[in-house]
Amino acid sequence: xxxxRLSCEKPFVGLPDGANLSGVTRIATVVPDRAGDxxxxxxxxxxxxxxxxxxxxxKVPLRNREVSGMVIEVREEDASxxxxxxxxxxxxxxxxxxxxLGIARWIADYYCCALELAMACVLPQSVRSGEVPARSILHAxxxxxFTGEEIEAIGRRAPxxxxxxxxxLAADGPRPLAALARGSxxxxxxxxxxxxxxxxxxxxxxxxxxxxxxxSFLPTxxxxxxxxQSEALHAAIAALESPGESKPILLHGVTGSGKTEVYLxxxxxxxxRGRTALVLVPEISLTPQTVERFxxxxxxxxxxxxxxxxxxxxxxxxxxxxKIHSGGARIVIGARSAVFxxxxxxxxxxxxxEHETSYKQEEAPRYHARxxxxxxxxxxxxxxxLGTATPSLESWHNVARERYRLCTLxxxxxxxxxxxxxxxxxxxxxxxxxxxxILSPAxxxxxxxxxxxxxxxxxxxxxxxxSTAMQCTACGEVCQCPNCSVSLTYHRDASSLVCHICGHAxxxxxxxxxxGDPAIRHGGVGTQKVEDAVQRxxxxxxxxxxxxxxxGRKDAYRETLGAFRDGEIDILVGTQMIAKGLDFPNVTLVGxxxxxxxxxxxxxxxxxxxxxxxxxxxxxxxxGDVEGEVVVQTFTPFSPSIQFxxxxxxxxxxxxxxxxRHSFGFPPYSRMILITLRSQSQERADFCALTxxxxxxxxxxxxxxxxxxxxxxxxxxxxxxxxxVSIRGPSGRALSRHVRAVLDALPMxxxxxxxxxxxxxxxL
Length: 764
Description:
- The structure is a single chain.
- The chain is of the alpha/beta class.
- It has five domains: 24-128, GIY-YIG endonuclease; 136-206; 227-415, Rossmann fold; 420-464 and 526-659, P-loop containing nucleotide triphosphate hydrolases (Rossmann fold, 3-Layer(aba) Sandwich), CATH 3.40.50.300; 671-758, Alpha-Beta Plaits.
- Helix content is 31%, strand content 23%.
- It has 22 helices and 31 strands.
- The strands form seven sheets. Strands 11-12-10-13-14-9-15 form a seven-stranded parallel beta sheet, with helices on both faces.
- Strand 23 (543-546), helix 17 and strand 24 form a beta-alpha-beta unit.
- The protein starts with 23 loop residues before the first strand and ends in a 6-residue tail after the last strand.
- 45% of the residues are buried.
């Protein structure tokens, strides 16, 4: 992927007035959208010179059309080349600031992707395209003062016009016309009539779309900190005051230990020093509760709290981004992509639940938001806190290497007890002939007791749908996806079979499609089936479900969590979106339906993910005055992941898992790149993977190891056959450059696609 600068062939005919004839030309290097990773040089017209700089969005001629692109460099050269000129500029100043542009270039280099893709991450599509307009609302304002006699005279002729005039005069400055009409009970026609008479002005004013504009937040005050929290806060303030000299802080606190209060007070310290703050959360489902806490704590300036995540409308995302870019927001909260928020004078970055795999982008560029946040903290420079109850082994290893500073919160706030975790061996139920029950008898009794006392219950299963497969008991046929190497999941609401990889759906058959026998049955359990069983067993309980199927509407997360917080839901069934970060004091029981789901997959991180998930889900219980209880159903009760989670022993788990990783040279003791080749032709995918593996083994960086090609664990997805090659070594940068060089020199058939995943979090 070369970065050569190419001259455009056709000269610009004619010079605008005021053109520079001094013999020196300003040259802009532009990366056009969707034109490959090939920066092109263009002349900067004199009339645009003050508006074009690194990070500017411009329109440029390319072949026979005009395309948008991003300026990455501006310089002066002798007028020895004839270049096409830039046509126009979007905005009066660069949209990407120099430090973020530098991060985009680092992402392109380290994560082996096109620079254009990296810059597309930094700038949201709604801003990049310029096609989403600002929202203007008609506002009313009085044009002059009126005496009481004048208003009375108007009232004798037109009483409603007089009432409308009084409403406008009572308002302090321009007010939205619709709001004035709604608040006064008058029709908008009355206001329009007095505008026609020349008494008031109706004028459109730009108003930002605020996703939380219709909500009010009760102010909260700083809470008293215990000694461990105070020590963590002092470390954060020290890093804030000497950002260039400080290390990232890993805040390892057990669930319910008050990490959020440390975040809030550290951000307060940054705001008091005139700095800004960025808060990253891993799940969109966590955003409403996080926003509520921050808007309540900073109630006096809650308009300065901006939100960025994928569930905002295009208009809301555009307006929130421009509010940040213009300096109107001092605190930004968001999911993965918010790491690129255009904040100036950044003082502190918070990465909550830093271990979460959802911080890793699944499509190119496959960046990890936590790692980009650490890079940004070093670039700005500013303080950064990585908070979690279950640190990733990479971050824990960085503590051991003294790259990170460790602060611990070993106890829950107010000395509340950690929940009691009971492990139920489902093999015993199977031996007693009760193996098909979704809830074991012990789980049923635990739920019944908690509901009977007016307490709330969370039931967790990390698999959506009603059942995981339909299988014929006569011939053994399983309904498979025609596009992927997985079985179809039965969704009862629509009576359909759905592939959770490609989205393929069809009606559920009443007879076996292979042999015609009606003895086709549902196998496995999904959240819909758990919800159905719970409603049947506890008919008086109010039950709700949170998963990707039930949370399709924009505000569904907020509404469901709000109802649960208000006590309108007794039992909440859900997937991993309810597993972390949520704080509901009346939840006293958490039930984990099947703890083995992610444990037996071909991925060396399977044990780590299972331990993290069990610990995080368990942490939702017992956050109030009543001691919590966690009931775990499993077929492998003696797995280290389950046993260490049972005793809330992260350090014991980490010591054992790191010893295993070290003995085999797996991350964090090495860096890894996973290259996946996919094609609708299995033979071509297989051949290209074999060739790539052979080429990668030539000239390997020192200490690197390249594996042989092999079918991916998910061998077929979305009609594409998939093969993988992995490479490991001590230097991630050296591996990235080696892989890029080999791929650049290795022409692939048009129907074979290579995906490069640097530091992968999943090998599937």
